[in-house]
Structure formats: structure tokens, C-alpha cells
Amino acid sequence: MNRETVVAEALDLLDEVGLDAVSTRQLAKRLGVEQPSLYWHFRTKKDLLAAMAQAAMAPHANAPLPTPEDDWRAWFLENTRSFRRTLLMRRDGARLHAGSTPTADLDRIRHKMSFLVDSGVPEHDAQMAMLTAGRFTVGSVLEEQADSGPGDGADLPADMPPIDPESAFEAGLSLIVDGLTPRLTA
């Protein structure tokens, strides 16, 4: 048993039972070990959850970085969509990710920020746009994953159609990009 095996099994457990039901006791049972042996790899459940969040983000974290030839708008849209797709890959993916610190991803974040600044986005606006897009995405996915049960939308008034999560996400994402566009420097 190694750290990667523990994290992979923990993510499988997450997908089966949800974040609230993930426990080190259940994980140890699943791995066929005694619970204290997990502390060899993770001192606390919080450490385990942080490692799970990092591993769950691998599809987004391994996406190609922007190049100088890329259009900042197209890249920003695709980067944010990739983040959303990655969060949706796991049950409670947004809850797992919320509040985590992307310490293993700092060089990639710096590269993305530099790309936006080099594309004419003022540095502070680039930081705020990335932060806003990230929090908007986590919030959108959090709502989407919370609403994924039977009967959703049944309590809406008859004259109000149910909201399609993907359409709502795209509309909000467009508002972020449209709000950033006038701030570009020449």
C-alpha cells in the first residue's frame, strides 16, 4: 500500500458514498488494513482530503498551458470549462475542492496569469478574473451537484422553466469575459 493507492481508493469511496460518508475507518476496511496504518501516509483526515482534492484535479491540472499564440478569450473560456468538467467528474467534486489550496499547481497558475497579462489584461484584473471564474465555477458545480436528485425543479412556479446548469454556467462565464474585455490595455 502506498500513498497513491490510498488516494485512489479514497476517491472511489467518495464516488460511491459521497463526501459526508467518507471515513478513515471505511477506507481502511476497503484497503484491508487497520485504520492506524493510514496515518503512515496521512497524519489527519484533512491531509487525506487535501490529497484527494489534488488528485481529483489531475485532468484539469494536466491540460495544456496557454501559448503566446492563443487568444486569451478562447483560452479563458476553455480553461474555466475544463475546471468545471473536472469538478463534475467526481461525486461532491466541488465540495471536495472548495477551500483547498492549489500548492502543487502554483507554477501553472503563474504561467496562466502571465499569459493573461501578456495578452493585455492588467495584472490585478487577471488575478481577480481567475479568482472570480474559479469561485463561480465551484459555486455553479456545487449547486448542480446538490440539485442532482429526482424531482428537481418540481417546486418552481409553472411560468418559470427549470434552469439548465450548463446554459446557466455558460451565461455566467460570458458575463465574466465580457466584463473583463473593456479593461484590456492596448
Supply the key terms.
Tet_transcr_reg_TetR-rel_C_sf, Tetracycline Repressor, domain 2, mainly alpha, transcription cis-regulatory region binding, about 190 residues, single chain
Care to describe what's here?
The protein has 186 residues and is an all-alpha fold. The chain has a domain at 56-181: Orthogonal Bundle (Tetracycline Repressor, domain 2). The protein has helices at residues 3-17, 24-31, 45-56, 58-61, 72-88, 93-97, 106-118, 123-146, 165-180.
* SSE-based structural type: mainly alpha
CATH topology of the domain at 56-181: Tetracycline Repressor, domain 2
Order of helices and strands: HHHHHHHHH
Oligomer: single chain
Low-confidence stretches: none
The CATH class of the domain at 56-181 is Mainly Alpha
Distance between the termini: 55 Å
Mean pLDDT over all positions = 91
Backbone CA Rg:
19 Å
SS element count, helices: 9
Which CATH architecture of the domain at 56-181?
Orthogonal Bundle
The helix content, as a percent range, equals 55-70%
Major sheet attributes = none
DSSP E strands, number:
0
